[in-house]
Amino acid sequence: MATVLVVDDDPNIRAMLLRALRYEGYDVTAADGAEAARAAFARGGFDAILLDVRLPDGDGFRLLEAFRRSDPAVPILMLTARDDVESRVRGLDLGADDYVPKPFHLSELLARLRAQLRRRAVLAKGGVLRYADVEVDLGARKASRGGRPIPVTGKAFELLVYFLEHPEQVLAKEAILARLWGPEADTGPNAVEVYVAQLRQKLEEGGRPRLIHTVRGVGYVLREDGR
């Protein structure tokens, strides 16, 4: 039975999520604020977290950072009424695995949660992906290039894994969208461009040669120069 921590100060949303998640067979703990969430998290053992951004006694983004520092692998889905691109990007950059703006369809949220738990199960099996001088430890959710750590989390980590799973293959933007956000996501191709640019910057720190190349009109390919 998967364990889920729900952090939301709205009693109606909290009650709805508790009922729905328990009906689906999850073991659920609810917190109405940052302090209660920290206490619950400290007791440990959660397989996923649903986290509201706006809390009465703290900032959801700071709570996200604290959770991610303590557990790099636990899936975290952000819940918020702020559905603007800036807030989404900030949450994802800080390590959120998905972003669900309110009001949301319960069936979609549950589907997104199941998708994240499936990914967690795959990553938990461990293993190492390598291409050129880039290496990703799936179990530890750590990446490096030439032995130097690459600070990638959340969607950026998933994007790097996707490239490493398909080296020297052209990945269409639509395929990347479906992999990272699901086939029914309303996220546009601009999000892919943003994350590819950020991942390139991290991979190319210190003057390292480019590995992620643009294929005009199609998408991107992970390839060493000259190949």
- Mean pLDDT metric: 88
What structural category arises from helix and sheet content?
alpha/beta
Number of domains: 2
Tell me the span between the first and last alpha carbons. 46 Å
Task: Report Rg.
Answer: 18 Å
Using DSSP, what is the number of strands?
14
Provide the CATH superfamily of the largest domain.
Response regulator
Q: Helical residue percent? A: 40-55%
Biggest sheet layout: 5 strands, parallel
CATH architecture of the largest domain: 3-Layer(aba) Sandwich
The number of helical segments is 8
Helix and strand run: EHEHEEEHEHEHEEEEHEHHEE
As a percent range, the share of strand residues is 15-25%
- Ranges where pLDDT stays below 50 over 5 or more residues in a row are none
In CATH, the topology of the largest domain is named Rossmann fold
CATH top-level class of the largest domain? Alpha Beta
* Lateral arrangement of strands in the main beta sheet: 2-1-3-6-7
The 3D shape can be described as globular
GO molecular function: phosphorelay response regulator activity; transcription cis-regulatory region binding
InterPro entries: CheY-like_superfamily, OmpR/PhoB-type_DNA-bd, Sig_transdc_resp-reg_receiver, WalR-like, WH-like_DNA-bd_sf
Domain Response regulatory: 3-117
Pfam families: Response_reg, Trans_reg_C
